[in-house]
Amino acid sequence: MRRHIILISFAPALLLGCKKSTEISCGETTPSFSTAVNPVVQKNCTSCHGGTNPAGRISLADYNSIYNNRNEVRSIVAGGNHENVSMGSNDINTVCCWIDAGAPNN
After folding, report:
1. Rounded to whole angstroms, how far apart are CA atoms 97 and 24?
2. Each residue of 15-58: pLDDT tens digit?
3. Cα separation of 26 and 64, whole Å?
4. Crossing angle, helix 89-100 and helix 70-79, to 10 degrees?
5. Rounded CA gap, 33 and 30, in Å?
6. By the 8 A CB rule, do 37 and 95 touch?
7. Nearest to 32 by CA among 98, 89, 91
8. Which residue from 50, 24, 21, 29 is spatially nearest to 38, judged by alpha carbons?
9. For the segment 54-93, what is each residue's pLDDT rounded down to a tens digit?
10. How many Å apart are CA 86 and CA 63, to the nearest integer?
């Protein structure tokens, strides 16, 4: 009986641990917005989240709009929670490390 209670108490943690995510590993250098982050966003995001009518009313067309939505961007990118985007681990790492460093306009 006691074994069943222990297993049941760990079940939610095990299920939550199965969520797709990418291990983020930042070096000492902050990725550059202009040469590293913006090209990733342009390649993966702006076809839907750019222009005059961005999907979900979330524009990622320029630095200010990306900065203003950085928390949502990081959550979606790091968690692999976007059904229309399949970013590679290097791109995910670049965007997340830039946001973790304060999302500088560098």
Report:
1. 7
2. 333 334 557 889 889 999 999 999 999 999 999 999 899 999 99
3. 23
4. 150
5. 9
6. yes
7. 98
8. 50
9. 999 999 999 999 999 999 999 988 887 777 778 899 999 9
10. 22
One-letter amino acid for residue 103 of the chain: A
Would you tell me how many other CB atoms lie within 10 Å of the CB of residue 1?
4
Which residues 6+ apart lie within 8 Å of 71 measured at CB? 99
**Ramachandran assignment for 95, one of left (phi > 0), alpha (psi -120 to 50 degrees), beta (any other):** alpha
Amino acid 44 reads: N
Residue 3: CB atoms within 10 A of its CB come to: 7
* Structure tokens belonging to residue 35: 């040469």
What predicted TM-score, i.e. pTM, was given to this entire model? 0.75
